[in-house]
Fold this sequence. Notes:
Helices cover 4% and strands 40% of the residues. It has helices spanning 24-31, 116-124, 382-385, and strands at 10-12, 15-17, 59-63, 66-71, 92-98, 105-111, 135-142, 145-153, 160-167, 175-183, 195-198, 205-209, 216-221, 236-239, 249-257, 262-269, 277-283, 312-313, 320-321, 327-331, 334-343, 349-359, 365-367, 387-393, 421-422, 424-428, 433-436, 439-444, 449-454, 459-469, 474-482, 488-493. The strands form 8 sheets. It has an 8-stranded antiparallel sheet. The radius of gyration is 22 Å and the shape is globular. The N and C termini lie far apart (51 Å).
Amino acid sequence: xxxxxxxxxxxxxxxxxxxxxxxxxxxxxxxxxxxxxxxxxxxxxxxxxxxxxxxxxxxxxxxxxxxxxxxxxxxxxxxxxxxxxxxxxxxxxxxxxxxxxxxxxxxxxxxxxxxxxxxxxxxxxxxxxxxxxxxxxxxxxxxxxxxxxxxxxxxxxxxxxxxxxxxxxxxxxxxxxxxxxxxxxxxxxxxxxxxxxxxxxxxxxxxxxxxxxxxxxxxxxxxxxxxxxxxxxxxxxxxxxxxxxxxxxxxxxxxxxxxxxxxxxxxxxxxxxxxxxxxxxxxxxxxxxxxxxxxxxxxxxxxxxxxxxxxxxxxxxxxxxxxxxxxxxxxxxxxxxxxxxxxxxxxxxxxxxxxxxxxxxxxxxxxxxxxxxxxxxxxxxxxxxxxxxxxxxxxxxxxxxxxxxxxxxxxxxxxxxxxxxxxxxxxxxxxxxxxxxxxxxxxxxxxxxxxxxxxxxxxxxxxxxxxxxxxxxxxxxxxxxxxxxxxxxxxxxxx
Length: 495
């Protein structure tokens, strides 16, 4: 294989596992010794141990029995440690596969080098600099052809290039087809972070892209080629945010829910190093307009809600920052979100988070508070929910430092619990009462829905999931809902 370096062995973040999909008991047993800190496995010579480590901006597709994952050229290199391995030539766009969304096998890289046309565009418009890596790949299958979209850019500038490569296999080799959108400093938009969605009714195909500069854009593609339907077209803006000239909105992803007949646009806000978080809007059409939780057009420059993720910390863990830049898939009616998480206190290590998704009665998605560990859907009883819980409200946190191009400047970060949404202890009593911010009562609604009641008598719902408690190394029950404020809230039963 010309463009792939193969590494054998099925790994779960440094833990060797069977080539066969692990049973649930085996998964649970292996997770008891799992460490989110992968300093000892960070070097290139330890790439067979990477598994869920060193994953940034993931995109996933399922083909046959395997899930294939593609991610940005981003790697954690601890200070003072040797990373290089002269026996291995690193490529671009990391490739992994898994049978169970828990054990991930590092397969190598999709490209041997950065495509020459992309590098030339960046350096021509950026004083000969930039194009040091490939960012934010996106994978889709059209007919028998796999299409891998990728982005090359000059950091902190909208001198960028989205290109397309194709193959008859998710493993490559990949043939370059050409540029999709190119931008320079003369443009409003920024050609990175592509995602592609097809209109289920008309068959028309759209690429949604953009990052920080100018907002999120939507451009129509030619279904046959995967390139722009009109040469030179850069599309129209479909999502902005308040103070968009100084604050980040980026990393769009769109998924269609056939039961709800809605398209959902996920975007990321704020510095990827700290408060990176996911927000979502919905539409009847893939090209929009998309509307948020309060009915605002996402093309309007306001801060849109709901939030689905945010920097958070359960007890017995230092916390997770940077939990955004997501991709979603529908696996035969079960929905999953993929995104990175940055491990506190340094927020430098890049871990893959896979979360199961649920859909509230209102039609809004939520994600499990815990990373997926092979567990099934929960069928709860009211008795099983009684006891002690940790609950987190995913509220906005003010930046503690002055941002530079929307990001935390070098040396600007120091660990503090105030930088995370922290859990609070809550007791779910047998009579259905509780003291939880505005909530005063709880009840089980069906098998997997908690119904909360506010002081004003309003009903608020949360989805129940069976989960693995990564912080306390045991199985548990969790819930995820959206408060009337538009911010998600998470709960985890601890005893």
